[in-house]
């Protein structure tokens, strides 16, 4: 039998949910609010890889291996090619029923370069990602790909207990579209 995305993602959730290093989201917009303002929390984050970090933690090797597997599957599945892609970050996200992220950009406009974010959903639920005017419900195995300098927001589930996803960010030179 085939190994489905749901089965794979369930194993990934087991690995990351007990992994050390989770912290409350610290978006710049959230920093302007007090703890009793609009949101109970903006979700939890686990940054297991960031290219600017010289001292990468060895305890993230297993989940970085998993993140790399997901990244490679995304790259081989998309109908275009990133020219000279460089991995920038693996950022695992957890939202519960009281989590509501703030509008933010993964990369500041002031940073030169082309950056792409890939939000890979690890479970299906009624949580969602909002990119511009578009809303995407979390669907296990689905990946949203967008410009890292575009405003977006993660929303926690309301009926389901949790939402997990992986935000992969890359830098690239250009995009090569397939020739027909």
Please estimate the helix content: 10-25%
Number of strands: 11
Give the terminus-to-terminus CA distance.
34 Å
Radius of gyration: 16 Å
Number of helices: 3
Instruction: Work out the strand percent.
Output: 25-35%
Give the helix/strand class.
alpha+beta
Strand order of the largest sheet: 1-2-4-10-5-8
Order of helices and strands: HEHEHEEEEEEEEE
Mean pLDDT: 89
Q: Major sheet, described briefly?
A: 6 strands, antiparallel
Shape from CA axes?
globular
Uncertain spans = none
Structure overview:
With 180 residues, this protein is α+β, with helices and mostly antiparallel strands. It is 19% helix and 33% strand. It starts with a helix and ends with a strand.
Topology:
Blueprint: H1 5-17, E1 23-24, H2 28-31, E2 44-50, H3 61-77, E3 81-83, E4 86-95, E5 114-121, E6 128-131, E7 134-137, E8 143-147, E9 152-155, E10 163-172, E11 174-176
Question: How would you describe this structure in keywords?
Answer:
11 strands, 3-stranded antiparallel β-sheet, 3 helices, 180 residues, alpha+beta, globular, 33% strand
Summary of the model, kept short:
The chain is an alpha+beta fold and 180 residues long. It has three helices and eleven strands.
